[in-house]
């Protein structure tokens, strides 16, 4: 049972929330406006505050600021009308736990309240993975997170599939965090970052003298992940020869280091992630069917950002706060026109692309509001006007020029880190390395 303060100037809304919360066994305090809510908050100790953004005497933003100034650990859920998205974004920037849009269904608000109260029990350190890094309140995202929490408690192998930039690495981290293996190591291996021989050596390790240059024993990731979770990022890039060996590891729960003569037993949870359609890869003969079945015990499909555009205002608020703080600025909002541009765009790079757009816009912003011109400068070529002159064009050269510019920009953003640049571009490490050589880029 928790002690929850509800602040709303609508009697019907107070009554509805009171009924929902009392059914859950919580103790309720009711306030007609922001000033009364602040007085009640100061007099007693509260576990959670639910407040409307539009209230007389002291509005929701003002009340939120006061609560966060004095009791930053108390979660605050804000309720807002659909047209009031700007204040909702501002509330998230100021530290609101989440926001609920009117009209809401009872199940939705119960879920948000439950998550808020769970965050108190876990404490501030443990709040971070779900509350601060998973941003959004769309039905698709809520369904995914519910499933993630369910499957985390099992020890089954999981296959996470989703486009580049959808957050596969983050979801894998959360699964480990909520699993019984959370005290063990969490190790990521990017299968696209290594050649066939090197990937085997990194996974299985080797014994001294196994090959030229093996001057000492080296533990592989399979041994280092003992008791924890091993995430095989971009497993669709794994070559067929290594797939055969890795399949045996999953089936037998043991492996042999290169140059070794005694198998090592392991106790590991495996998570695979890929931006490829592995069923299609199986049909094309590029991925083993038996390994696919071993990995696909519990499939998780991450929705692209274009399928959950209602989360864009929340994500914008989150990234505005993140990069304003990092850059020592006070950017509080986007113009309505700028947000409309973001909502209409299809986001082929998903959340990662949106984050890059906001980061760059914050860097160049001259006031506390980001204008549309600062976003238009980073828009995707697919949104620009296309003009073909009568004499025609060299399409191949144009495409190469565009590709070179994007590769160079990705390298600039990652300070020359090829693996990170490949992730930004949504291609494999090997593909990027080939293109760098092709275009003579460094």
Short description:
The chain has helices spanning 11-23, 34-43, 60-70, 85-93, 106-132, 139-152, 168-177, 196-204, 221-224, 240-252, 278-283, 289-295, 312-327, 336-344, 350-364, 372-376, 395-413, 418-425, 429-439, and strands at 3-7, 27-31, 48-52, 76-81, 98-102, 158-161, 186-190, 229-233, 254-255, 264-265, 269-274, 298-301, 333-334, 369-370. It is an alpha/beta fold.
Q: Which structural class is indicated by helix and strand composition?
A: alpha/beta
For the largest beta-sheet, the strand count, sense and barrel status come to: 5 strands, parallel
**Overall number of structural domains:** 4
Would you tell me which CATH topology of the largest domain applies? Rossmann fold
> What do the pLDDT scores average to?
84
Query: Which radius of gyration do the C-alpha atoms yield?
Result: 25 Å
Strand line-up across the major sheet? 2-1-3-4-5
Fourth-level CATH superfamily of the largest domain: P-loop containing nucleotide triphosphate hydrolases
Oligomer classification = single chain
Low-confidence stretches: 123-132, 373-379
What's the N-to-C terminus distance?
59 Å
């Amino acid at each position: 049972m928790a002690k929850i303060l509800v602040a709303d100037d609508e009697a019907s809304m107070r009554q509805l929330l009171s009924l929902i919360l009392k059914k859950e066994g919580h103790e309720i305090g009711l306030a007609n406006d922001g000033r009364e809510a602040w007085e009640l908050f100061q007099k007693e100790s509260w576990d959670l505050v639910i407040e409307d953004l539009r209230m007389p005497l002291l509005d929701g933003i003002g009340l939120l600021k006061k609560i966060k100034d004095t009791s930053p650990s108390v979660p605050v859920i804000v309720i807002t009308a659909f047209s009031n998205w700007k204040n909702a974004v501002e509330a998230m920037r100021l530290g609101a736990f989440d926001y609920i849009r009117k009209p809401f269904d009872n199940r939705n608000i119960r879920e948000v309240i439950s998550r808020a109260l769970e965050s108190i029990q876990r404490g501030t350190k443990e709040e971070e993975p779900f509350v601060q890094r998973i941003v959004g309140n769309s039905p698709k995202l809520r369904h995914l997170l519910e499933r993630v929490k369910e499957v985390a408690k099992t020890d089954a192998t999981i296959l996470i599939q989703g486009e580049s930039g959808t957050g596969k690495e983050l979801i894998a981290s959360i699964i480990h965090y909520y699993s019984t293996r959370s005290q063990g190591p969490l190790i990521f291996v990017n299968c696209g970052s290594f050649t066939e021989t090197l990937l085997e050596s990194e996974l299985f390790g080797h014994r001294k003298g196994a090959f030229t240059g093996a001057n000492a024993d080296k533990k592989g990731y399979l041994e280092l992940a003992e008791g924890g979770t091993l995430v095989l990022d971009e497993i669709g890039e794994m070559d067929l020869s290594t797939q055969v060996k890795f399949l045996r590891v999953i089936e037998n729960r043991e492996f042999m280091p290169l140059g070794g003569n005694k198998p090592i037993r392991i106790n590991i949870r495996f998570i695979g992630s890929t931006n490829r359609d592995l069923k299609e890869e199986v049909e094309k003969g590029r991925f083993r069917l038996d390994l696919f079945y071993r990995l696909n015990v519990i499939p998780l499909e991450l929705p692209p950002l274009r399928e959950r555009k209602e989360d864009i205002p929340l994500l914008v608020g989150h990234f505005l706060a993140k990069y304003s703080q990092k850059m020592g600025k006070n950017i509080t909002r986007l113009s309505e026109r700028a947000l409309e541009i973001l909502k209409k765009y299809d986001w082929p790079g998903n959340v990662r692309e949106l984050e890059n757009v906001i980061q760059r816009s914050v860097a160049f912003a001259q006031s506390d509001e980001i204008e549309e011109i600062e976003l238009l400068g980073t828009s995707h070529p697919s949104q620009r006007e296309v003009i073909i002159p009568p004499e025609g064009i060299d399409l191949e050269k144009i495409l190469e020029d565009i590709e070179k510019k994007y590769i160079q920009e990705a390298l600039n953003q990652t300070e020359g880190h090829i693996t990170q640049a490949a992730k930004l571009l949504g291609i494999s490490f090997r593909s990027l390395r080939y293109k760098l050589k092709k275009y003579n880029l460094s």
